[in-house]
Amino acid sequence: MAMKLLQKTVVEAVSRETDRVRAVTLRHAYRPQLQPFEAGAHVTVHLPNGIRRPYSLCSDPGDPTTYRIGVLLEAESRGGGIGVHALRPGDELFVTYPANQFQLTAEPGHSVLIAGGIGITPILAMIYECVRYERSFELHYCGRTLQDMAFLEEIRTLCPADRLFLYADEDPTAPRRLDFEELLTGMSETTHAYCCGPAGMLEAYQRTAVSLAISAERIHFEQFSALAASDNRFGPAFQIEISKTGETFEVSEQQTALEALHEHGIDVPFSCEGGICGECRTELLSGDVDHRDKVLGEDERQRAFMPCVSRGRRRIVIDP
């Protein structure tokens, strides 16, 4: 697999959006513009502490002079959030070219944008794109309290009041929860829904869409929480064969395929280590796989494998 192209950037600004969310603005170290991107895109940030993490771009896609990411510092942070929150203006770091698995459809029609917590980041870029091209949209933004909602004042300047719906389920002044059945019932055939948020929110969103028989082509989502901190990456041992060399080795019960590949000197690019970014995708040539990622569609699972979280059953052959 080819290595991802990198851009050298400089931290232009760091701002506090909430008690736990920092926004970091990056510019190219040498050029007037960074690589262009579309709403929903992410980049993998190579942090000074050696950690690589994917973050959605939440800046205006129409302005390639800077990228902006918004990062939540979680209690169970494995170093990514800590590394981002430690950044200061003038720091230098590499980021990949943008990648996108969460695009707005090119079809005309209405867009229902739904965000939970830090899931607002790709959605914010979508708002900018909808405003620029005068596309019909509405935003449903969920958080514990209004004070926990990052970029809220910016969003209020972009969204018409009758298209902005806030749900603060623990706010003492305006407690309110999002009802997916109420929201999605009656969606027209030209309406697409986009949701980014925690796992429980996405499960409710997808479950409701299925119960309402909404076409999967009109239900889009992106999960920002990874599996890497859990035991879901582990399981029965299995064998990997490298097609080009014939080399075969075992992946132990308490080891990921990605770790085993690196242990045997096979340099597979990676980032999230949690099955959500797609960076470590390898070609699957044969064998049965227990797919645990959140990236591959059903049609892709016969020919691709995400070694950071997925596991083979007995023996698989791959072309990394």
Automatic annotation (TrEMBL):
CDD domains registered for this protein in UniProt: fer2, PDR_like
Annotated ranges, domain FAD-binding FR-type: 3-105
Keyword Transmembrane helix: no
Record-annotated 2Fe-2S ferredoxin-type domain positions: 238-320
A single MF term (Gene Ontology): oxidoreductase activity
Keywords associated with the record: 2Fe-2S, Flavoprotein, Iron, Iron-sulfur, Metal-binding, Oxidoreductase
Pfam families: Fer2, NAD_binding_1
Signal peptide: none
PANTHER family: CARNITINE MONOOXYGENASE REDUCTASE SUBUNIT, NADH OXIDOREDUCTASE HCR
Protein name as it appears in the record: Oxidoreductase
Source organism (scientific name): Notoacmeibacter marinus
Source species taxonomy: Bacteria, Pseudomonadati, Pseudomonadota, Alphaproteobacteria, Hyphomicrobiales
